[in-house]
Amino acid sequence: MTETTANSSSSAPVAALGGEVGDYIALLKPRVMSLVVFTALVGMVAAPGQVHPVIAAIALVCIAIGAGASGALNMWYDADIDARMARTAARPIPRGRVTADEALVFGTVLSFFSVATLGVLVNWVAAGLLAFTIAFYVFVYTIWLKRRTPQNIVIGGAAGAFPPMVGWAAMTGSVSLESVVLFAMIFFWTPPHFWALALYRARDYERVGVPMLPVVSGTRETRRQILLYSFLLVPIAVIPAFIGLGGKAYAAISVVLGARFLHLAWRVYRSDDGREGDATARKLFGFSILYLFLLFAVLLVEHVVMRLVG
Amino acid sequence: MKAVMTNDSDIGRSDAPAPLDAATEAERLRRQRVRSIAIALSLVALVLLFYVATLVRLGGNVFNRPI
After folding, report:
1. How many Cβ atoms from other residues are within 10 Å of residue A187's Cβ?
2. Considering the domain boundaries, does residue B3 fall inside one?
3. pLDDT of A28 over the 50 cut
4. Chain B within 8 Å of A278 (Cβ-Cβ)?
5. How many whole angstroms separate alpha carbon A41 and alpha carbon A117?
6. Which among A98, A123, A158, A292 is placed 20 to 30 Å from B15, CA to CA?
7. Looking at the domain assignment, is residue B13 inside a domain?
8. Cα distance from B34 to chain A (closest Cα, Å)?
């Protein structure tokens, strides 16, 4: 309806009308945000000690908004390549719904408020980690690495791995081995996850000059790297069961899911380019999301049950 | 203010923004109003957030002061 109205005036660019509230929400990358909220929540619930539920809720909201702000800043910087990739062409800036400058201001303001509020109302360790996460995602990943090296998502993946650590710090005011393990799980999950996607989206990345691994080193090397990182990821994902972070259910489920992950990574490694190879990569990509979600969900359930019982 | 509104002398000038038709202008105003409401609600939420958090953090000490 709005689009029809906007398009009805051939002389008025869509941006001249200003964006809808929904466009600004889209700048926050709600789907990424939901994963961040979920992993941060697990970090909070798994952490020892207790804070008032209201303070915990505020911490979660601040982490969510901080993550969203970094998404808006990412869209501001990447607007040029987003417009040329099928996966990102419908984002608010390429569609002309929001200007790049508006996204920059929006992201900056939200970053400042989320960090400051977390610091003042919860604690400054968590706020410092959140600020570092936003800065890492924007400056290290988006601006520095993404267009320069095929290792972009390996190093840049750290930004996505910080939320459970921020959640843990919000509850305890510190960083500990357990929170580092949660970080490591997401950190080592990111490369096989994104490279599986990159395998069947390689042409998109190549067209816009983003040096994803399949573009720079070829699909054979990418398949090999996916398998190597999967071999690193699966044992790391079992560690929580040995340090008291996960219980017996977690131990069993992480082993079973890990075996399935390795099986799919092996199939990707053995497959060749073409429709069948793409289908295998898609399967791994889809399963990787389920894998991380289930691991964190089991941790969440175990800790909630433990708190309710004990 | 008058200069911002559609001014007869602006029509045809290359540096003046193209005038919006009535429907588009109404849509622009609607979006502007919705954005303003969203910003206002966000600010109210932020104030409430600090208010509630202060009560929670201070607890009973809020009322425990010399009058």
Report:
1. 22
2. no
3. yes
4. no
5. 18
6. A98
7. no
8. 7
